[in-house]
Amino acid sequence: MDKILITGGAGYIGSHVVEILLMNNKQVRVLDNGMFGLWSLYPFHENPNFELVEGDLRNISDIKKSVRNIDGVIHLGGIVGNPACSYDKLTCQDVNVIATERLAAASSEAGVSRFIFASSCSVYGFGTQVFTEDSALNPVDYYAESKIAGEEVLKKFKTDMIMSTCRFATVFGASRRMRFDLAVNGMTASALYDGVCHVHGGAEWRPFIHCHDIAIALCKISCASENLVRNQVFNIGSDDMNITLAELGYKIGKLIKASRVEINDTLSDNRSYQVSFKKIRECLGFTSKVSINEGIVQIKNIIESHIIPIPTLRIYSNLKTTEQLVV
């Protein structure tokens, strides 16, 4: 694919995808409504291969404009995380499910050859087994339900497009569009600012992956042989980064020397899942590069360098931004 549309391209993961594709001489168009700002894309504005459509996935004219003369779509746009999705379920349904169907239909009509949908490993919800792409889904929150609904919409969609679904592990690390409402990032920030790494629960399992590694995986899928990715689901993460929240807390405690770890098992999370990433490793040769420890140090460095003014600002939280901006 030579010309790729990235929905949500100004976002936490999307800005990494834009950079990687441009570095590989791809033409990149971004559709983003600027809900979290567009400054993450400023470094690319003078690149002749970059184009920004400031629009909304709920607007069919913005969608049709965006998919014109496009070879492939990486669909990252949407409301992410259960707190933000649960705040306004109607808007979540409109953005995460209905808009996904409209985008797929418009893409097919425009002759787009490939379509990659960003889902989440949260669709596995809770279980003691190691979940694979073939495991039964067990959503325990509205965000996961919306992602499953998006997957189902695309599964039933009749098209010649090469379609792939990517279920992301829990993301961490630095990005031009930072988030501190994610486990690694938020717990590290708390350890630095409050001197306490707060762990809610502790026994719950999570798979983790750095945001830049996810972007690498998406770009790899976008150019893989058709027979490897058509109608395929890929978990994106790393087997050795399946850890409990307590283990994560102790990692942070060791690296943030002046902090202590506080485990509050009265605030346990209802999600707990370990995930296998064997399929993407064996089919596409993808392995993550950035460890959790490296990600923790990365977050520590950007906070201590004052690149990030205050991690608790609204713009670094999907829920806080949604509360203010969703209409």
UniProtKB/TrEMBL annotation:
Residues 4-237 form the NAD-dependent epimerase/dehydratase domain. SUPFAM superfamilies: NAD(P)-binding Rossmann-fold domains. It comes from the Bacteria. It comes from Symbiopectobacterium purcellii. The lineage of its organism: Bacteria, Pseudomonadati, Pseudomonadota, Gammaproteobacteria, Enterobacterales. Pfam families: Epimerase. This is NAD-dependent epimerase/dehydratase family protein. InterPro entries: Epimerase_deHydtase, Lipid_A_modif_metabolic_enz, NAD(P)-bd_dom_sf.
